[in-house]
Amino acid sequence: MPSKHLTSKFVLAAVFAVAGMVVLGVLFFFDPAISQLFPPCPLHWCTGLYCPGCGSLRAMHLLLHGNLMGALKMNPLMVTSLPIMALLVIRPRWGYFNWLPWAACIILIFYGIFRNIQLWPFELLAP
Asked: What is the pTM (predicted TM-score) of this model?
């Protein structure tokens, strides 16, 4: 008989899997670039600046439709981080390096700064 702990972990994983599939389904059928279903980025709405996550929903929508180049134009950091995230799911112990959260934070800060500089090549980072 399986333990209660394993059963609750399985149920939690199943709930997350179903929720993820629903979110991906909504992103597949509704284009964030034209749909009013998705709220605008609060930072961009208030300041006109792009946050590191701006364009991520549009990039995911384009990825789900097989448009890798379009997704890279929307948010290259999010697209290139997906394989790294997949590796962390496959090998979760790799996420326990002490330097990893600091490196991710520094990358996000610099990416957020660079994508708001209106000079080539930085302007390529804006969605």
From this structure: 0.84
